[in-house]
Amino acid sequence: MAKPLIVNVLELLRRPGSTKDVDAAVSSADIEFGDDRITDKPVRVNVHLESLTDGVSVTGSVHAAWHGECRRCLVPMNRDIEVAVTEMYQVVVQDPDAHAIELDQINLLPMVRENVLLALPLAPLCVESCAGLCPSCGVNRNDTPCACEEPPADNRWDALDSLKSRLSDSPEG
Ligand SMILES: [Zn+2]
Ligand SMILES: [Zn+2]
After folding, report:
1. Per-residue model confidence (pLDDT) at position 171
2. Where are the domains of the chain?
3. Which residues contact 99 (CB under 8 A, 6 or more apart)?
4. pLDDT for the residue numbered 164
5. Cα of 76 from ligand 1 centre, angstroms
6. How far is Cα 122 from Cα 75, in angstroms, rounded to an integer?
7. What is the pLDDT of residue 158?
8. pLDDT tens digits for 158-173?
9. What is the 57 CA–ligand 2 centroid distance (Å)?
10. Is residue 49 within 8 Å of residue 22, measured between CB atoms?
C-alpha cells in the first residue's frame, strides 16, 4: 500500500533552507479517523516542508469532508472543511509541540488525522440563523411556517393579574 503521507526528509535535514512540497489525496479509510462524521471522500493534503536549523516545519492545509445533521432542524449536512496546519518535526524533540522525525521520515498521517478531528464542528448548524423545528408541531420552520408560530403569551403579568383578582375578590375593609 502506498504511504503518501510518509515523507523522506533525509535531503531536507542535510540542507537547512531546502524545501519540499507534498500534495496528496489520501483515502479517508487509510487515515482511520474512527469517526462516523468523516465521509469516504479522499482527504487532500497540501503542505510545504522547510528545513530549519532545528527541524522541519510543515505548513499548509488539509481538506476533508464530513456529514452530520443540523443541531436545530436535523437536516442532513454534507460539508467540506479546510484546516490550516502549522507543525514542527525534530530529530531530537525539544519543542513540546513538535513531532518526532523517525528514520529520516516524517509521517504526516497522525497530524492530519488530529487536525481534521479537532476542526469538526461539535454542534453544527445548517445556517447560523436556522429556525429549527417547531417544539409544538415538529415542522421544520425553515421550510414551513406553522400555526404555532405565535410566541407563547407573555406571562410576566399573570402574577399581577391573579393578585389583582384576589384583591378584588376579597372583601373591602
Ligand atoms: Zn438547521
Ligand atoms: Zn408548529
Report:
1. 55
2. 6-119, 131-173
3. 87, 88, 89, 90, 93, 106, 110, 111
4. 66
5. 9
6. 15
7. 64
8. 666 666 666 666 555 4
9. 54
10. yes
Neighbours of 7 (CB within 10 A): 21
- Count Cβ atoms within 10 A of the Cβ of residue 30 and give its class: 0-12 exposed, 13-18 middle, 19 or more buried: middle
Mark the ranges of the chain whose per-residue pLDDT is less than 70. Answer: 1-2, 149-173
pLDDT of residue 163: 66
pLDDT of residue 123: 93
- CA 27 – CA 34 distance, rounded (Å): 13
Q: Supply 20's cell numbers.
A: 519540499
Q: How far is the CA of 77 from the centre of ligand 2 (A)?
A: 23
> At 90, which amino acid appears?
Q
The C-alpha cell 503521507 sits at: 5
Give the number of the ligand closest to the Cα of residue 132: 1
Cα(172) to centroid(ligand 1), Å: 56
